[in-house]
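Weekend entry, working from home. Most of the wet-lab plans are on hold until the incubator is repaired, so I used the time to fold the two sequences that have been sitting in the queue since the last round of cloning. Logging both here for the record. First:
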Amino acid sequence: MEKLKFSKSSKYNSKPIIIDGFSGSGKILISELLKAYNNSEISTWNISFDYLPILYSFESIEEEAAKSTLRTIFDEITYNISIGRNLNWRRKDLSFAFNHPKKISYLKNMFSNVHDDNYIIEKVAPKMNIPFLVHMATFNNFLIEDTFGSDVKFFYTLRDPLYILETYSSYLHRIESDPREFTPKINFNGLDLPWFANGWEEEYSKINQTEKSITLIEKCFDHLYKKLTSIHNNKNYKVIFFEDIILRTDDKCKEIAEFLNLDYRNSILKKIKKKNKLPRNNINVVEGFWKRYTTNNISRDGENEENILFRTKGMINKYYFEKLQNLRVKYFNFKEKLINNKKLI
């Protein structure tokens, strides 16, 4: 049977904004801030944008099939948002449509007659910038870039690894047993392991959750480091360090505006900053309106580097503590390198 080559040539001229990074590194914070920017739509979680790049990176799906599927899904999302379809009206969800500045427009679109196709193509879609939140889906591949070309913009959020460890260590157990857990998985001796355990499955199966978290952050950071340092044309990428966005919020918001070529409304930004307790005076843990996963749901509000480091040291053996220390050095060296080179930030 002849192998088919899938394709999709016709498209809307809306633009995707990919927000990728580690859990607890500021992805949700960026998606919140983007609400203040003109022509930025409600943030979207779509499992295909997480799954397809990972499947492609392991050669588990053919490139043109993956690209045409992503393109089709994105165009469907563009159309649905433009007519007020499939928006989330659950009040306590992060993607609650009524928390977006365009809520009235979304409501009107729900109940009004649908514009004809040409109007959406020519007048509506070109003004739509749609943020997608994904989880390390693009660290080791260029599928989304190859699909959307110069239309796509990437935010990569990074944070001192020490501060994101517990986000993972308190969550990883769900991957093997929770049907509401959607990380791409691989099979190892009959168990579901996360895709990022590939190549160290045996180790992953034997060590504790904190040690797993250190190792996965190390390996995924290496993926991203290799990707970012290989990029020659960086105009479509911006790295946001969590420490910078919480301490120098206004400066970073101006940089985001320049990066996206979108203005923002100060009145809306002011409300978002207040809601997210920005800017802050230090990098200590702050529990905002969105509380991260923690072991036994314990509050970490106010914890600093010394507290977290002391607790973490008591949970792991010397080898993994040294690995954590080296990982932190690598993180801060990478940050300094980007700042000095004025690249990707």
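Second, folded right after the first finished:
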Amino acid sequence: MNFQPAANSATTTTKPSTGSHLRGIVQVAVAAGLWGAAYPLTKGVLGSLPPIGLGFARFALASGLLMALTRSGPLGGIAPGDRRAMGWLAFWGTFVLVLGMNFGLRWAPGIASSIISGTPPLFTVILAAVWLREPWQGRQFVAVGIALGGLFLLAGDAPGAASRGPEYWLGLVLVTVPQVAWAIYGILGKAVIARYPWPVVCRDTFALGAAMLAPFAALEAAWTGLGTWGPREVLILVYLGVCNSVFTYGLWNSALAMIPVSTASFVLYLQPISGAILSAVLFGERLGPAGLAGTLLIFAALALVLRPTPPVSSADFRVGPHERSG
């Protein structure tokens, strides 16, 4: 999935006007559509580009733009005590994201991968209970059970799934890994995100993550080559690096000043839907009855998890991520 950054601690609590409220919803809807398209578009070029090299190029481009925007280099303005945390955010939010997403998409169906990309809130609930010792509510147990059932139905629905062998199932597991990674990103990064503007956090997440990917991308290029670059590949790289990794973060963060996080969370349901629709258009993939039932179960589980409850939990995901970065 592509992580949606947490709300800044300075977000205003004043009631927005009707016009700004609608504008905030539209911005989140646009961001969700752009995030959702990342999975099928990435899958579409993995036949001609190496997976690690594509991820490196994406985040090198994004970090370069953010360094220009902030007029600073990696870790510029970051307190020494926060630099290790930035490294961990880069590891989970970029390095693990690329490995799981780009390798998984080589074998997993785009439509199933897109639906799975909407599951980070579920993993956040589980991890918050384990790491932060947050008490689980009954509905959260129910939501996790429903989601697991939905994922099982979705995974087995693709035509020929039973005969595709271990690579197909490995692909589904791998595209689930970034969703867990973005949940970890959201929990680990909560304090850091509250202290720095989103361009600074994303600058270091992307730049340090690209640095981690660089040696592996070099080995991959030496072993398999740089791939075949044409106009389509360049356009998709620009889309992933600019629209999906920079522009959407600006839309999301400015929208949180106009609408509640709970409202933005529900609008983000458009993310997996947009990805599924694009997968159907690009690859001719379709969901059968089991896949549709699984998708509905996943959305029902997300609705249970994201339904606001007072008081706000200390691990508020703010969907809030991902992490969206993927």
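Plan for Monday: verify the second prediction. The two ends are 5 Å apart (CA to CA).
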